[in-house]
Amino acid sequence: MQKLDLSRTSIMGIKHFALILMAFPNVALSQTHDGSHGSTPSAYAGEETRLIKSLSEQDLEEIARGGGWGLARAAELNGVPGPTHLLELADEIGLTDQQREELEPIRTQMQAEAIAAGERFVAAERALDEAFQQGAPDAEALEQLVAEAGLARSDLRLVHLNAHLLTLPLLTDAQVSRYSVLRGYSDDPCASGPNGHDPEMWRGHNGCN
User: Fold this and answer.
1) Could you tell me which of 203, 198, 171 has the C-alpha nearest to residue 81?
2) Neighbouring-strand partners of residue 52
3) pLDDT tens, position by position, for the chain (209 residues)?
4) Would you say 155 and 120 are in contact if contact means Cβ atoms under 8 Å apart?
5) What is the reported pTM?
6) Residue 52: what are its φ and ψ, rounded to 5°?
7) Are 63 and 69 in contact (CB under 8 A)?
8) CA atoms within 13 A on the CB side of 69
9) Can you spell out the DSSP letters for 109-173?
């Protein structure tokens, strides 16, 4: 009998709740349709107005001028500088006239090749974007479009990384270290030495003098 009483209580509670929902049909939905609960705006909101959805205006501008677009991070963040920032920091790093003369054509060639490769990449991304604007490409067309865009991006990345590779042999170890400090990738060993070390000797060993 006790079990039966509990079941009746539960049934009565369910019926009571159902009556409330019938009387106030908007109550149950208010927290999912008021824009504050149960509805999270996409991180892509606003990007639907882009000329090419996968690329921002800033992306397009940097690619068009042959900028690095972050594609050389594998080199840059692993101690292999690129020609552009090296020439910008030439005085602070202590580049010689000969080093500047050798770096300049590397930068010029990199920029020219990056602009050309960037145009191909943007064209490939535009083609992919337009394919979806027109409805949806079939599986074979999609595979080809994605492959072309991926290859174009790979070519662009190779241009920038190769310029870093050509740059490294022209520098001394001290210049590479100084570049890393100036770019904020490592602490300045000349700023202060370890406790117990003679400051002047420390600076001399680290090429600070």
Assistant:
1) 171
2) 55
3) 444 444 444 444 545 544 444 444 444 444 444 444 567 899 999 999 999 999 999 999 999 999 999 999 999 999 999 999 999 999 999 999 999 999 999 999 999 999 999 999 999 999 999 999 999 999 999 999 999 999 999 999 999 999 999 999 999 999 999 999 999 999 986 765 556 656 666 456 655 65
4) yes
5) 0.73
6) -125, 120
7) yes
8) 28
9) HHHHHHHHHHHHHHHHHHHHHHHHHTS---HHHHHHHHHHHHHHHHHHHHHHHHHHHHHGGGS-H
* Domain ranges, ordered by start, for the chain: 2-33, 55-171
CB 33 within 8 Å of CB 39 = yes
Torsion of CA 192, 193, 196, 198, to 10 degrees: -100
